[in-house]
Amino acid sequence: MAESQGTRPHRPARPAAQKTVSVWRRTADFAVWAVRVVSRLAALILVLYIAFTIFPTNPANSLVRFVESFATSLSLGLYDLFQLADARWQVLVNYGLAALVWLIMGSAVASLIRRVTP
């Protein structure tokens, strides 16, 4: 009969705990996003450095200098892991390995954040 009179059933108020979980969820989502962006940017800089080393570029170019200045610090100490005869192959292998490590670490940390989020 209540439906025919146009009344709506009472909807209980949302508990405060759900609001807290939602704040934690948004914070975790932002942290996951930030980790993925940082790890992918680091890998991108390393890949650009590989491309700038393999193909002839102008060393006085500001973009080339910017990428080169960050590449060694982002290489995680892997820039001289393998000593190869050709310098271009050495950069490709060592910095490529560092880019791969950045991507794997970023993915692992992001999934770890997801798992610990309530």
Key features?
3 helices; single chain; 118 residues; elongated; mainly alpha
What's this model, at a glance?
With 118 residues, this protein is an all-alpha fold. The chain contains three helices and no strands.
Care to describe what's here?
- The protein is an all-alpha fold.
- It is built from 3 helices and no strands.
- The protein has helices spanning 16-54, 62-74, 87-116.
- The longest helix is centred in the N-terminal third of the chain and has 39 residues, at 16-54.
- The radius of gyration is 25 Å and the shape is elongated.
- The chain starts with 15 loop residues before the first helix and ends with a helix.
- The mean pLDDT is 88.
